[in-house]
Design a protein that fits this description.
Low-confidence stretches: 259-265
CATH topology of the largest domain: Beta-Lactamase
CATH class of the largest domain: Alpha Beta
Number of strands: 8
Mean pLDDT: 87
CATH superfamily of the largest domain: GAF domain
Number of helices: 9
Distance between the termini: 50 Å
Strand order of the largest sheet: 5-4-3-8-7-6
Order of helices and strands: HHHEEHHEEEHHHEEEH
Number of domains: 2
Helix content: 40-55%
Radius of gyration: 21 Å
Strand content: 15-25%
């Protein structure tokens, strides 16, 4: 049992509100958290005084307040994903001798927030701060495959949403949907020459506390080398999945259930 029950109940309430699509009634909060209504109202009143929730009297509902938004902004300023991910990627690069990167989804693009270069490997376009089309990059495909279908469809409503870099990759939603279904089934994403000719990547998603794709990790390598990983990505997928699960654990996420055997084809 918690030694600070009021603090625990307050945090549970904030977490519950953060997961809702909009403001909710106090009765629903109390029922969902199995709290007496009097306790729920007392906690809500104190959080309202501190600015963490707001009461919408016309709707008789409660939602998150400005103070909660400031927590979110502070989280972004602290750059936890890049700070937690950088040492993991550095160790991965040292182990496999290929370049690795960590990216987040931003609309139809991926935004690279960590880039770890391996010695004597080609320069990559995926430097920190660079944006690339999500439907072409392994990092983007890994995350898109974990999103609800309607959200992916909203991101790519027609052919004008598809960016072409090397004349490879999906150019319409039906092609992207098949690719994402395969990605979800296999548990990893690949791309070969769609971002840069001669370079291929393998990527896996990093999930947050509700199973949402918070980021993705990918390894990039020369696809035409005799020892290229494109022919057999299974060993890379195993290491990437391990690193992704560890980063997910560090951000208090729920690591994806990786396939027990890697399906190729």
């Amino acid at each position: 049992m918690s030694k600070a029950p009021a603090a625990q109940q307050t945090l549970r309430m904030l977490t519950f509100l953060a997961r809702q699509r909009g403001p909710v009634a106090a009765a629903r909060i109390a029922e969902a958290l199995e709290l007496p209504r009097s306790t729920a109202y007392q906690l809500l009143a104190e959080m309202q005084r501190q600015g963490y929730v707001v009461h919408l009297p016309e709707e008789r509902r409660w939602g998150l307040g400005v103070a909660a938004f400031e927590l979110s902004s502070g989280y972004a300023r602290h750059e936890p994903l890049s700070r937690l991910g950088r040492p993991l990627l550095a160790a991965l690069v040292d182990e496999i001798g290929e370049s690795a990167h960590l990216a987040v989804l931003h609309g139809r693009d991926v935004l690279y927030i960590v880039e770890e270069r391996a010695p004597r490997r080609p320069h990559l376009v995926s430097d920190v701060g660079v944006r690339l089309p999500a439907q072409l990059a392994a990092t983007g495909r890994a995350m898109l495959a974990q999103l609800p279908r309607h959200q992916v469809r909203a991101l790519f409503p027609d052919r004008t949403a598809f960016v072409d870099r090397t004349s490879l990759g999906p150019s319409r939603y039906s092609e992207l949907r098949r690719l994402l279904d395969d990605t979800a089934r296999h548990g990893f994403a690949t791309e070969n020459g769609e971002i840069t000719p001669g370079l291929a990547s393998v990527g896996v998603a990093v999930t947050d506390h509700v199973g949402w794709p918070a980021a993705s990790i990918a390894i990039t390598f020369e696809s035409d080398r005799s020892d290229a990983h494109a022919a057999d990505p299974a060993p890379l997928v195993g290491r990437l999945s391990s690193v992704a699960n560890e980063l997910s654990r560090r951000i208090r996420g729920n690591p994806l259930a990786r396939p027990s055997s890697i399906e190729l084809g």
